[in-house]
Amino acid sequence: MDHGACIMIRPSASIISVTAKISELYPLGVTKIKQLEGYDDLNFFVECERQEDGAEAEKYVCKIMNNIDSLEIDVVEAQHQIMERLHERGIVVSLPVLNRTNQYFSVERFNNVDHVFRLLTYIDGSKLNDSEPSSQLYNNVGELVGKIYLELKGLEIDALHSRNSQWMLKNAPQILQYLPAVADAERRDIVKSFVKEFEDFVVPMIPNLESGVIHGDVNEHNLLVEEMRIAGLIDFGDVCYAPFLFEIAICLTYMILHAKDLSVGREVLKGYQKFRQLTATEIRLLRICVCSRMCQSLVLGCQSAVLYPGNEYALSSQKYGWPLLHQLFQTANQRLLALWGLEKS
């Protein structure tokens, strides 16, 4: 379902109203609540005690989805199905919590707008964004993405075949409409160049690439770590049906942004290819997929900052992202593949 004509509305709700809503919808009493960062959604960390049994306080994340994603109930249900599948196969992910009506979510009204409201289990760990770069860390991230491929391969969910979010990598060309939000002319020209490459070389090949269900946003904010170990994966808001190449390209983009170093791609890919070897076609398209995702992140971040001034999370990639994009622009494909250990493939 395409809601491109609708205006995206980020939820607005006070801590008091969210606390009251949790107590209304769940058999829980909130003892602690704190707002978390978020791009299009509103997120809160909450500690609760069960009103019925007085058990020890439990930790959750309360997520109130933006109005556009809230229209796609079948996609919300698909997210839960994917979470359960990965959980059953030993990958640590957040899970939805049943409410008083034995449902995993409800649609609630805030400021006269309907939003999906739900609680998810909380995973202990620090965000990868707060960790120091290391080869072992990036190798472990690549391994996780490879494991996710194995566990989701063959999964069929009808709702994801028709999903058409602006954050899906196949929709990278759509960012051209938001280029006025980018002040620098040289940066706009670089984005246009990469978008044209994506349209010319990647889009025609999409039907021929191995595809399936992907997480769609394995980034430094959605990966939780304990030392060098990956402690969990959160935020399934961008799940979709897409080429598996897009999953590793998206992850690679954000690990490069985290490290501020193009060369970390070697370790990410080394870990990933323990579980899935890239094909010659995928290797040829990898650079432009990474560049296009970086363009998406940067341009949509600028646009979000225009719509929602003060949302620092939306601008988190800007400082280092543009210099890295410029570096990618100046790096030939074969040189980059050599840097990533793919030159002999």
Automatic annotation (TrEMBL):
Top-level class of the enzyme under EC nomenclature: transferase
Pfam assignment, any one: APH
Alphabetized UniProt keyword annotations: Cytoplasm, Kinase, Transferase
Primary localization class, coarse: cytoplasm
Reactions this protein catalyses: (5R)-5-hydroxy-L-lysine + GTP = (5R)-5-phosphooxy-L-lysine + GDP + H(+)
Superkingdom of source: Eukaryota
InterPro entries, per database record: Aminoglycoside_PTrfase, Kinase-like_dom_sf, Pseudomonas-type_ThrB
Subcellular location: Cytoplasm
EC number: 2.7.1.81
Domain Aminoglycoside phosphotransferase: 35-273
Protein family according to the UniProt entry: Belongs to the aminoglycoside phosphotransferase family.
Functional description taken from the UniProt entry: Catalyzes the GTP-dependent phosphorylation of 5-hydroxy-L-lysine.
Protein name as it appears in the record: Hydroxylysine kinase
